[in-house]
Amino acid sequence: MSQELLQTPLHALHVEEGAKMVPFAGYDMPVQYKLGVKKEHLHTRDAAGLFDVSHMGQLRLRGNGAAAFLESLVPVDIVGLAQGNQRYAFFTNEQGGIIDDLMVANMGDHLFVVVNAACKDQDIAHIQKHLPEDVALEVIDDRALLALQGPKAVDVLKRFNAEVAEMVFMDVKTLNILGVECVVSRSGYTGEDGYEISVPSTHAAELAIKLTAENEVEWIGLGARDSLRLECGLCLYGHDLDTTTTPVEASLLWGIQKVRRKGGEREGGFPGADIILSQIETKDVARKRVGLVGQTKAPVREGAELFDADGNKVGVVTSGTAGPNAGKPVSMAYVTTELSALAVKSSPKFAVKSCL
Known about the structure:
Structural class: alpha+beta
Distance between the termini: 27 Å
Low-confidence stretches: 346-356
Radius of gyration: 21 Å
Largest sheet: 6 strands, mixed
Shape: globular
Mean pLDDT: 95
Number of helices: 8
Order of helices and strands: HEEHEEHEEEHEEHEEEHEHHEEEEE
Number of strands: 18
Strand order of the largest sheet: 10-11-12-9-3-13
Strand content: 25-35%
C-alpha cells in the first residue's frame, strides 16, 4: 500500500496555479507550472522566481555547547561561524562518506539548520543519537520555506523590507515581513542572487501571493530548480553525493576550512576524519566529481556510463539535463582521478554509453 503524500502549507496554492504535481521526498510537490521547465529556468536567470521548498527540514540547536556539538559531526568550522552568518556543511560517517549536506546559520542564541527533505528523518535521528545534555534540538514544524531567486530578487524583496538590500551572500537576519517574523538568508540553490525565507506556515500563502503579484516574479517548480542547480555545478544529495562518497572525491574541499584540517586549531574530531584528512593531504582518491558539457543536443542522463578511447569504463554520470542558458546539455559525473582535469574541447578524453 502506498504511503499518503505529505503536503506543504502552499499545496492548495500550487494546485490553484495549475502546477503539475509529482511525488518528491514523501511530498506532493510542483514540478512545473504553466510556463514549463525551460521558461521557468530562463525567467529565474533573467528576473526572479519563487520556489516552495517547505519540504526541507528546519531545525534549531540551543545551548552553550551547540556549535561545538554540531562541529563534532561535520568537517566544517561551526565554532568560528559569526552571528548573522550561514555556512554550507555536510554530515559524514566513519568511512568518510557524506550522510547529508546542510546549511547552518548562527542566530546568536541558537543555530538554525536546514537539511534535505529526503534525509531529514535520518538527520534528526543522527543528531539525537549524539546529542549532549547541554544542547537541545528543536524540530521546526510550523514554518514554511520559500526561495526567491534571480537577479531581481533584491529589488522585489526590498519592497517588503528594505534591510534585505544591505545583506550580502550568506548573511542571515530575523526580519519583519508583512507583519510577521521571518528568518531570511541571502543564499539559494540556483547560482543566482536571492533569498531563502523561513515564514510561519499560517502566513506562507499570503507572502507567496504577494511576492508572485510582483511583475518580476513567477512560480518555479522542481524541474527548473534541478536544471538551475546543475547548470551552476551544485550537488543534489542522493545523486551527486551519498554515503559512499567522501568530500574529497566530491570536490568539496572548499567546504572544509583550514581550522578543521591537519595542523588546524581544531583538527579532525568528526566522523571519518582520519580518512578525509588523509585524502586531503595525499590527494589519493580513485575518482573525482567533474562537470561535463554535451557535444550533441541530447542530454546525458544519470546512470550513463563513461568510457575512454580504448573502451575502458572510466566513470558514470550522476546528474544530467539540458542547459537552457548554457545552450548545451550539462551533466555531473565521477571519473577516474587521472581524467578529472579540464578536458580540451578538440580532444575529448572519454565517450558516453547510455545504460537507461
